[in-house]
Design brief:
By secondary structure, the protein is of the alpha/beta class. It is built from 13 helices and ten strands. The protein has two domains: about 5-230, TIM Barrel, CATH 3.20.20; about 235-285, no CATH class.
């Protein structure tokens, strides 16, 4: 899931275009992108789309950002969009582990009603000071939590933190990555609002990738190729990872715990990283089966 394109749920004319894009995932937005008077309409449009053959027969990861739990729309959102075409529910502003568990129970109930064999996972937005402070507890709150997503606009702007302040950005990214690691879920980077600043988007994506994030949100189709290129492992990374895994197999046969690959000492943590790189390369179609 190198790239995730936001799609307003009130814009059905964009749905097919989004499916045809190069984005690995689509995030249909019922929250900020939909004006209050159009919430019911957008919910119904998304319900029909997720039940369509186009959605259910597609390889992309389909996500819906619902309205927050403290709004009158949350329960109706869940009932409408938890359909067989959905993979993840993006939960904005989770307030506590108890709230995450409550959301997971509601999603599971809706999944049973819609006949899904497995309920969609939860992608939790870390976009408030409290959520950042308690991110690990939120991530560990329920087995259905699949990942954490950093939301810098809500996290920084109300408190006067400059969006481009490198020290703040690095601290927030690292905190979310470590929280995700504690729960063994993925960490996902948020949106970059300046569509014209491709260099800024790339620099921020490269930073988050170095910190272990798997991909970045895109608010415009022009950002998709940038995200895909940044979060895709390079040929050199893939080749090194394959050599590590080959050496790991040989070391296992010889009952050796640590060994050298390309002049560097390698043990289990490096093997885990190599496995992740190879899996990412395979998912991106860079390796055969």
């Amino acid at each position: 899931m190198r790239s995730k394109l936001f799609v307003p749920a009130s814009r059905p004319e964009l749905f097919a275009k989004a499916l045809a894009s190069a984005a690995d995932a689509l995030s249909f937005d019922l929250e900020d992108a939909v004006a209050e008077p159009r919430k019911d309409e957008a919910r119904a449009l998304l319900h029909d789309f997720l039940n369509s053959s186009a959605a259910q027969g597609h390889a992309k990861t389909l996500i819906v950002r619902v309205n927050a739990m403290d709004t009158p729309h949350f329960a109706a959102d869940i009932a409408a969009v938890v359909q067989p075409g959905l993979h993840l529910v993006n939960l904005p502003k989770p307030d506590s582990p108890e709230a995450v568990a409550e959301a997971a129970a509601l999603v599971a109930k809706a999944a049973r009603v819609s006949g899904m064999q497995e309920p969609p996972g939860l992608l939790l937005n870390i976009e408030t000071p409290k959520a950042l402070r308690t991110a690990a507890a939120l991530a560990c709150a329920h087995p259905s939590v699949a990942g954490l997503q950093l939301g810098l606009g809500d996290l920084f702007e109300p408190y006067g933190v400059h969006r481009r302040e490198a020290s703040a950005l690095q601290q927030a990214l690292f905190a979310v990555r470590m929280a995700a690691a504690e729960a063994d879920v993925f960490a996902y980077d948020g949106a970059f609002a300046d569509i014209r600043d491709t260099a800024g988007f790339r620099a921020e994506a490269e930073l988050s990738r170095r910190l272990g994030f798997i991909g970045k949100s895109c608010i415009h189709p022009s950002q998709i190729a940038l995200a895909n290129s940044v979060y895709q492992p390079s040929e050199a990374e893939i080749a090194h990872a394959q050599r590590v895994l080959q050496a790991a197999d040989a070391a296992s046969d010889a009952a050796v715990g640590a060994y050298v690959v390309d002049g560097k000492m390698v043990d289990r943590p490096f093997v885990l990283r190599a496995q992740a790189i190879v899996a990412s390369a395979r998912a991106a179609g860079l390796l055969g089966e």
